[in-house]
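Support request from a user on the community tier.

User writes: "When I paste my structure tokens into the form, the page sometimes reloads and wipes my input. The last time it worked, I copied everything first. Here is what I submitted, just in case something in the input itself triggers the reload:"
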């Protein structure tokens, strides 16, 4: 479901597809930093017991976008982070006519290229529940640059990691192992794309992956965050509003999109 974060029907839509947690709550820091001044914001919340396939998740998002546009036709800026980056890419390729711009933040599109992640993701489903709970906490320093976050933000991240049950996390990790997009599919997507990659991502080779995607997308820009970890949108020094403005992914006061 799409959760309304703001109610500003006169502004373009910013649709956020979250990471593995699926809750969508971790965008809040960026909303307080000015994101809502340019957009009417929605987050796609995936129920914690949802075991949908990529095709099913993609169809759900496409349907929700169509409903939004039927109610109020306006540009949609689709933003996906990590797991949500994979989903955003699936949605954009299935229904490019619905998308004005695509923003991918450390997308997990290269997950299946990391052998240790492949092994570890299989292990997630086999761990006894008490050990799994401990492993989630132990994984936190790899997922985030904790020194660049407040204690509240770190606590929110941990809560999000613990939100889906073990079986759901295992299922979504399996989806990332199976994820595949062909280069020719990327080449056919001509809408503006902004790739945001963290240099200190300890989970994914995000900078290298952003370079690969940049090569195939015909209309893409790239931003490299030199000190950020995987969950960069929670870091106090990262301002998504400023990044979007600097790269002309920010709506203008006079909406040239009204054709």
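"...and here is what came back when it finally went through:"
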């Amino acid at each position: 479901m799409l959760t309304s974060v703001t109610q500003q029907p006169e502004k373009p839509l910013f649709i956020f597809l979250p990471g593995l947690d699926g809750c969508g709550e971790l965008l809040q820091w960026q909303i307080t930093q000015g994101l809502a001044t340019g957009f009417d914001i929605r987050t796609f919340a995936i129920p914690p017991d949802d075991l949908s396939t990529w095709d099913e998740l993609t169809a759900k998002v496409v349907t929700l976008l169509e409903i939004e546009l039927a109610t109020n036709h306006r540009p949609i800026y689709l933003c996906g982070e990590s797991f949500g980056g994979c989903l955003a890419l699936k949605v954009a390729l299935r229904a490019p006519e619905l998308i004005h711009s695509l923003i991918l933040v450390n997308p997990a599109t290269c997950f299946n290229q990391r052998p240790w992640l492949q092994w570890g993701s299989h292990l997630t489903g086999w761990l006894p529940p008490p050990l799994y709970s401990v492993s989630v906490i132990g994984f936190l320093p790899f997922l985030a640059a904790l020194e660049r976050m407040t204690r509240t933000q770190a606590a929110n991240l941990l809560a999000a990691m613990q939100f889906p049950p073990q079986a759901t996390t295992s299922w979504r990790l399996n989806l990332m192992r199976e994820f595949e997009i062909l280069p020719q599919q990327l080449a056919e997507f001509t809408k503006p794309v902004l790739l945001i990659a963290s240099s200190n991502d300890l989970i994914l080779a995000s900078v290298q992956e952003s370079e690969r995607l940049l090569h195939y997308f015909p209309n893409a820009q790239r931003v490299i965050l030199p000190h950020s970890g995987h969950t960069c949108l929670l870091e106090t020094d990262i301002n998504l509003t400023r990044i979007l403005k600097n790269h002309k992914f920010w709506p203008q006061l006079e909406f040239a999109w009204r054709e």
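Agent notes: The reload is a front-end session timeout and is unrelated to the input. Confidence is low (pLDDT under 50) at residues 253-259. The longest strand covers residues 76-81. Escalated to web team.
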